[in-house]
Every structure is written in structure tokens, then in C-alpha cells.
Amino acid sequence: MTTQVRRETLAEGSAVGEASMEESLTTDRLGEPTEHRSWGAQAHERKGFFTDTSICIGCKACEVACKEWNSNPQDGTYELLESSYDNTGGLGANTWRHVAFIEQDGDRIEKARESGRKLVGLGMPTVGPPTGAATTPGAAASNEDAAASGGGCSGCGPSGCGPSGGGCGSGGGAQAGTTIEADLLSGLLDGDGTTADLSNVDTTPPDTADFRWLMSSDVCKHCTHAGCLDVCPTGALFRTEFGTVVVQNDVCNGCGTCVAGCPFGVIERRDDGTINTPTDRDDRSASEMDVHDEGTANKCTLCYDRLLEGQEPACSQTCPTQSIKFGDREDMVEQAEVRVRDLHAKGLTEARLYGANPHDGVGGTGSVFLLLDEPEVYGLPPDPRVPTKDLPGMWASAGAAALGMIGVAALSFLGGRR
Amino acid sequence: MTTSPYDSYRPPDGDRKRRRRGGGRGPAGGRGGRGGPGARGGSGGRGWLNRGADGGREMPMVEDVEFTSYYGRPIVKAPPWGDEISLYLFLGGLAGGSALLGLGAQITGRPALRSTTRLVSLGALGAGALALVEDLGRPERFLNMMRTVKITSPMSLGSWILGGFGSGAGVVAVIEVDRLTGERIPLGPLKPLRHVLHALETPAAIASVLLAAPLASYTGVLLGATAVPTWNAAGRNGLPVVFAASASAAAGGTAMVTTPLDQAGPARIFALAGTAAELVAMKVMKDRMHPVEVEPMETGEPGAKLHRAEMLAVAGGVATAALEVGVRLLDRRAARASGGSATVRGGRTALRVGLQVASAAAGAALAGASAYTRFGMLEAGIASTKDPRHVVEPQRDRLEARQAAGITHDSITTIG
């Protein structure tokens, strides 16, 4: 029943979306990042995620909520993938949120810290307010929120947390105390709001003396310049009034061009998948047991159906630590910038943002991440670029090649014997 | 080597080795990863791995903590494109090139060349379009390709090129069939329209020819405008040229197979020029690509196919050149000593048959080279998505090159 309602609202919204897509096509392609130029007439602010991996506890609630809400079929056969606690594998047609687990030792942490420090040395852009504004009211509020809903899960610092104990309350109280100060309650426990330099404080959670877990919930980036959207030949992919990128599954013919067009490897054609729900319930028809939208491209919609109803996406709503935050993209970037400056001020220089820069190869992403190591460690490309950026040159060379071919054909007949 | 009977229960460690190698081989090698293969043996940093083996503590799940890829998993996804698409790339080029030869033959009065190339053109187009539809996830919705015209989508423009070209090529081929059957196509009451149909020949031929060359070269853009590392790099460095040249070789080669020797002259020159251009463009393209992006084109099954393509192109090209010289000599001699004795004429006929066979062989080699090029390039791209190294290393290098040049405003990784 819910599915029915959702489908209808989806269809309704798509008309609006296509109009905005056409508009963006005429002005927005291939140029400078034009987030504010051609997106102006939107009915809503651009929405986005800020995924703060430093407070992710790896509970995978986002994966479950996403799968449940979107009734996505099962991936694989529940085999163990031998990749720490990650047995999901990666994003795909049936998996729109994926929690990555990475185990690192002390050396690696040091290297991550060093590479983050280098970013500062390079003079990377500071897009937001100056560093002095690290304790803006908004930021403090959001930190408060995070602390409140975090439920005092203290074991999870930027240097990792043990999934075995859920990071909550078990063992090593004194040490865990310093961890709180170092991360979750940033600035709050200092009372007067000054940020203490904690680089020398032992921030290692108990029992994990020389390694940390990195946990990160990956999702579709909803790029400003989206490769999948650009190369879609049917118009099945469109830009919504929320600035997100969504597939219309009733239009998509499964050509697969978008799969190749995504520099992050997010979108995929749903060629298989199973739904193992009980078939003996009377109130469910057999057709509902089928894998839906088979043979079409599928990816995160940023819960377009929920946004239309004024709700927030399932993953961010369910996230227990507010590692996944949802809101206006501008606010998300601002929060992210405050957060990364905060962590740097505390000596945790491994922190860096991913996707917050409107001048990067994809014009900035709707889903912004705070990472604690190089992007490729998380399976993210270090310098993604929307492939259609190269189109003018490619079309030019294709045109030249075509003219050359016609010329050679003409010459062949002139040179050929009669 | 088994040192204890219990060792036989140990799971084969091939998998674990592969994974470890995947990490070590990564871009990490030089930059902050494990210090090359030497580091692998060093037990100092990995002592912690054994910790917990007695069950006293939690054992780490992963033995290799230093990697710069995520468990060696792909970053970019391969499109769900198989042999059908490779076949289409080849057939599309063949159709386009053949249409060019067809119009030329019509203008210069070579009826045999005209009719064979036009029939080949329509046949290749039809088969190619079928292959394309077959590869869709929802084939019944293939007409949705005609829902929009999008300049940013090579697949969209390609569909329109294909459709437009197909209309023209279809009309021309119908006329050709009508002519071959002695104008006996039963048109029924529409009989008076036969003249109209035949009057359409030249306009339709010209229309299809205008789209024929783009049909042959747009596929280079189709592959190029993707995030697949090898395709994207190739597309930026002349893949459309390679494909257009390869299409010329395929069309010329096929015409050499299907057309009598004395009318296939332009086809031979077309094929030769195409082959030469393909070899040169391929070399230039590879030289301009990042070595890691070229790698999938030189290793494995795709590498073997591209190598075979090159061999066939060289062999077919040399044979075609020799053939062209032979045919010219033969003609000159025939012109000089027209008539002659019966034996001389018989010998000339035998020679002609031999040359016709050689022409077919050389033509087939060139068409085969073109097919191998298409299959090889498609598969090389798909192979390049399997190992994240092909994605990460070129990206790292270009990022670092930009940063070294002082361009730091366009990195996706920022700090506040």
C-alpha cells in the first residue's frame, strides 16, 4: 500500500524535475560550477548529506533502513567477504548505503595525520567562514545535538572504536573519558569553549593499543555535475527540485550508459537480486515478492519520496550517532567545515572533507563526507571528474575524424582506376 | 610443504595473498603505503597480527592493514556491456564506411561495388541495431532512446545518428534490391511510386552518407565519455579517430571480399588508408595515455585481441598494397597486349581468379582487424575497472601534478 502511494508521488514529482533538468541542460553543462546560477529557480533549497565518519560506530542501521524503506532486494548470498565487518561489499543497484570498515595500525594513523597536515600546507581552499569562527552558534548547537543523541557512546573517537563493545560504556573508563574530550563533545567539555590541543593526549580506546577502525557510510554523491545524468540517453535520470539526481524506473530502458558515467561507481543496473520474504502470508500477492524495477538503473534517490512529504531520508533519520546528517546542502557544508577545523585544532589532522569544494571535478557533491584518511582508503576516487567534461574535445575529434573519413573516401575514388 | 598433519586443514591461502598483493601493488607503493615488496616480509609491523591468536583478545579480521585501496575492490563500475556492444561498434563502423563507398560507386559508375556496399551497409546496420537492443536491460523500451535529444549523451546522439542513417540506408538498399530483382518488387497499386522511389536514390544516399561518418566515429565518444579509466583516457586522446579509421578498413576490406577485382579499386585504397590511419592513431593514442591506463590494452585477453588486430591489420595492409600494385600492372599489360593468344588470355584469367581470392583474404584480414580492435577496446575498458589501481594511480598523478604546478583550488579533498 505504501509502495503505491510512493510510486504516485514519484510520478507526480518527475514532471517538475524534467522541467528543471531541461533548464539546467541549457545553461549548466560543462561550464564552471554554477551551483547558484542555473539552480536558482528551484522550489526548494538543494538538499544533501553530511556524513561525519569520525562519529560513525559501524552499526549499519543506515544500510538496513535504506533497504527496508526502498524495498531493495537482497545482494549476494550472505557470504562473508573477509573485509573486517563489511560483508556488504559496496554500493550497487540493490545497496544504496554501504558501511566501509577499515582496520589500521599506528603507522597508518600517523601517515593519515601527515597527509592531512600536508593538505593544510598546500593551501587547500577554505570555502567557508574563516578559521576564527570555529565555535559559531550553529556549530555548537549541532555538536550538542550530536552529543545528546549519541547517547554517550563514548568509545568511538577519530582513532577508532571497538565494534565488539559497541563502544559504549564497557571497560577502561578513565581512558574513554579522554576520548570523549577528544572527539564527540568537542568544545563542550572544555567549558569556556576554548579548544585544547589534544594531539599529545592518549586517545586510544582500551584494547586497541595500536590500531583503529575507520567506519564510513558511503552513499550516492548527488553531484553538481552528475555524469550519470549527463549521459542518460532516455531522460530517465533527472535533477529533482531538491537538487538531487533520481532515476525514473518506468522510463529507464537499462542501456547501462550511466553505470559507466559515474566516477564513483554508484549507479548500477539491477540485473539480479532476490527477495526472501515469507511467501505464505495471505495479505501479500505474489507479484509483490518479485524483484521490482529489474533491468533498469538503480541508485540512492536521497529518499525523494520522503522529501516530497517533508520527511528526511531513512538513513539519516535512523542514524543513532548523527554521523549521517541531512539538511540544506549549504548548511551541511558549513557544519562540515566547522567540524574539520575543530578536529584540526585538536591535532587530529587526519580529518579532511570530501566533496565540499565547488571547484572540484564534479562541481562539489550533494553528499559531503568527513574522512580520516585518503579517499582511496575508503574506496573513493582521489580526483574524480565528470566524464562529460571532456565532451567538447571528444565531439570535436569525432567530427574531425568523420570529415577525414569522408575526405579519404573521396580521394579513394579519385585515385582508383576506372 | 606440510609440517604437521593439521596443516592440511588450513584453507588455501591463494585468496589472502591476492588481496594482500592488491593492496601492496596499489598506488601505495610509492606514496605512504607499504614500502614496496620488502615491507611485506617485515614482521616488525605485523606482530600485532598474531595477537589474540590464543583467544585472549579479539583477533584482527584483516591481516593487511596498510592498503590504499578498499580491499582491492573496484572503484568505478563496468557498464553491463558485453559482446553485443563490441559487435555493434564493429557493425556500425562497417555500415557507415560501406555507405560512403556506395555513394562513391554510384557517382563513379561502379554498379557492382555500389550494390554490394549498400546491401552490406543495411545488413550491418540491422544486425548492429539488433545487437544494441538485445543488450538493453529492458529491450521493449528501446524506443525511449528517441524520447529526448541530449548533446551531453553520446548514446542519445548516437541513437539519432543511427536512426537517421538507417532511414537513408534503408531507402537506398530497397532501391538496390529492386534493381537486382529486375524491378520486380511487387508494389501493387503503388506501382507508379517506383519512379518516385528511384528518384529518391541520390538524396537518400547523400543524407545517409552525411550521417555515415559520424556513425563510425561517435562510438569513440560513447566509450570516451565515461568514468572507465582506459576508455576515458583513450577518448581524450583520439579514440574517435581510431574508430573512424578502423571503420574505413572494415568497409574497404568487406568490399574487397564481396566485389569483383576491377571495381574494388577505391575500396582497396580506402581500406589501406584506413588501416594506416588506424595503426598510427592507435600508436599516438597509447603514447599520450597514462601507462596504467594503457596497461589493460596490453595485457590479458583484451591485450591479446588488440595485438591480433595489429598483426591482421599489418598483414592485410601489406597484402592489399601488393594486390593494388599487381592489379595495376596486370591492367597495364592487358592494355598493351590486348588480344594475344588464347593461352596468354587463359593465364591472365587464372591470375585474375588468384588475385580475386587474394583480395578476399586480404579484405577479410582487414575486416577482422577492425573487429578485433573493437572487441579489444571494449574489453580493455571493462578490465580497467576491475582493479582500482587503474582508477587511483592516474587520478593521483594528475592531482599531484596540478598541486606541484600550484593549482590547489580544485581538489575534491579539502580541509575546511
**Strand ordering within the main sheet of chain A:** 8-1-10-9
The main β sheet of chain A shows up as:
4 strands, mixed
Number of helices of chain B: 14
Structural class of chain B: mainly alpha
State the CATH architecture of chain A: 2-Layer Sandwich
Radius of gyration of chain B: 28 Å
Low-confidence stretches of chain B: 14-49, 62-67
Order of helices and strands of chain A: HEHEHHHEHEEHEEHHEHEEH
Total DSSP E strands of chain A: 10
Q: Spell out the CATH superfamily of chain B.
A: Formate dehydrogenase/DMSO reductase domain
CATH structural fold name of chain A: Alpha-Beta Plaits
How far is the first residue's CA from the last residue's CA of chain B? 55 Å
Assembly state of the chains shown: heterodimer
pLDDT below 50 for ≥5 consecutive residues: which ranges of chain A? 1-38, 127-194
CATH topology of chain B: Formate dehydrogenase/DMSO reductase fold
Strand content of chain B: under 5%
How many distinct domains of chain B?
A: 1
Q: Helical region count of chain A?
A: 11
Instruction: Write down the CATH class of chain B.
Output: Mainly Alpha
Pfam family, one (chain B): NrfD
GO cellular component, one term (chain B): plasma membrane
Keywords (chain B): Cell membrane, Membrane, Transmembrane, Transmembrane helix
Membrane topology (chain B): Multi-pass membrane protein
